Amino acid sequence: MPPSSAVPPVPTEPSVPPTPYRSMLGPLSACVAFGVYAVASHLLMVHAADRAWAVAALFGPLLLATAAAGWRQRQWLVLLACAMLVLLLVGTWARGGVADMHLLYVLQHAGIHAALALTFGITLRPGSTPLITALAQSVHRQVTPAMRHYTRRLTGAWALYFVAMVVLSLLLYRLAPWTVWSLYGNVLTPVAAGLFFAAEHVLRYRWHPEFERVSMRAAAASWRSRAAPP
After folding, report:
1. CA distances from 158 to 94, 197, 229 (A)
2. Are 199 and 55 in contact, with CB atoms under 8 Å apart?
3. pLDDT tens, 16-44?
4. How many angstroms separate the CA atoms of 58 and 61, rounded?
5. 51 phi and psi, to 5 degrees?
């Protein structure tokens, strides 16, 4: 018989299963980048609070993100508010008052947390669905009465947390040196929010194991779909 002309199979490298370290690379990189930005913001507020480029770096990302969200959702009042804030920033910087710029940074920090407190707190009105309850309904197949009670209390806890952050921000601005407020506003604020979130995540599954495990991606998608225009 003639020799076979079949081509022998080319050996392939065995696939390497993803490791837990590789799956954690993305979140860890995001945390490191955010930490670098927080420390850089603190240094800018302490050493260059009234410089034009520093003002743009400190207010720009939030303004651009807010304006982009307002544009996608056709929220013209949000776009108008962004435009007015830009004019306010330019006018304050043109006057050259570093104390005025400090106050604007404080008002930005307090205003964001006050808006979040209102966003969570207003859903606790009689007849309304608490915000976290609504998010739980969108990501869990079944929401029991105990889960509804827990998510309602958690919505209230977040609202009180944001109110406390506003009060502490104003107190530190009035009573502490500017470097202390800047450290609080830029570094300790995200750390506190992360600790609150992490502690609640651990306690939730300890107190209520009936909650299904939900990824951060699914939770974020639920939040975006809730905020999307009809």
Report:
1. 38, 10, 24
2. no
3. 444 555 555 666 676 777 677 777 777 87
4. 7
5. -80, 140
